[in-house]
Structure formats: C-alpha cells, structure tokens
Design a protein that fits this description.
This protein is of the alpha/beta class. The protein is built from five helices and four strands; from the N terminus they run H-E-H-E-H-E-H-E-H. The chain has helices spanning about 15-35, 50-60, 80-85, 105-120, 135-155, and strands at about 45-50, 65-70, 95-100, 125-130.
C-alpha cells in the first residue's frame, strides 16, 4: 500500500493520506536524476489501482512535473476534487481505463475522474469495458494507441 492502513477499516485514501508517499517518490526521482545526470523534472505517469490514485495525486498537485497520465482501474483520492480546480490541467493528455464489473474500485470512480479531469481542461481518452479489476484486452489496445500517439507528439 502507498499509505498507512487503519486496521479493521478500508476506505479510499484521501489526498492527505498519499502526501508522504508522493513526497518520497518525487524525492527519489529528484535524487536519482541528479545521480545519473539526467533531467526528470517531467515524467509520463502510469499507475494501476492505488498506483493510479498516487499518479492522479502527483498530476493534480504537481501538473508541471507530469507530461501525461495513464490511470488504470484507479480513483482520484478524496479531497483532490477541490484541488483539481486550483491546479488546471489544460491540455494535459490523460488515458483512463476501467472495467464495468470492478468490485474493488467501482467504475463510477473512473467516470467521476474523467468528468473532473475534463472540467480541469485535460485532454482525456477513456476506455470502459467488461471485466473486473484489471486492464481488458480492448483497453490495452486503446492504451497502446494512446501511448503511441503521445510518443509521436513528443518527438515531432
């Protein structure tokens, strides 16, 4: 897990719950990029489930650190809906994929994330398919098209 878990209770983490992990991850990236003498101020983020939640949090709180976002079977952490309005994501490329039968993270979480991201100005591609808490073959193919288009955009 990316956060402290309270025994006997599972709930979606808040943006505050994820802050220590977010800060540790960005610190690790900063230290590593210095050690290899490469500039990693901007990254493409990909996350699955709670990794998607952490990727959403990084994107919302540090949009200048993220080139693009791919969120798979995840959710926007509680409290981030307020912050997303403060940190505009105008034109930020985002791909979201989710299964309609996901029992761990209900598909409504993805639908709500798409709405919030679009309201913030992000350029969102959404793939919803049959299936549970995984990436379907259909959405994997759509993600491949999205990532190829992003690569072409970056090199041209």
């Amino acid at each position: 897990t990316w956060r402290r878990v309270v025994p006997g209770a599972w709930e979606y983490p808040t943006i505050e719950d994820l802050l220590p992990s977010l800060e540790a991850l960005l610190g690790f990236i900063n230290d590593w990029s210095l050690s290899v003498n490469l500039d990693f101020r901007q990254l493409d983020r990909v996350g699955f489930s709670q990794g998607a939640a952490l990727s959403y949090a990084i994107t919302i709180l540090n949009p200048d650190r993220v080139c693009s976002l791919t969120a798979l079977s995840g959710f926007i952490p509680d409290g981030a809906d307020i912050l997303i309005k403060l940190h505009q994501l105008e034109g930020k490329p985002v791909f979201v994929a989710h299964g309609r039968e996901d029992a761990l993270v209900p598909v409504e979480q993805a639908r709500q994330a798409v709405k919030l991201l679009e309201m913030s100005g992000a350029n969102v591609r959404y793939c919803e398919s049959a299936g549970g808490h995984k990436v379907s073959k259909l959405c994997l193919g759509e993600m491949k098209k999205y990532l190829e288009a992003e690569l072409i955009r970056l090199v041209t």
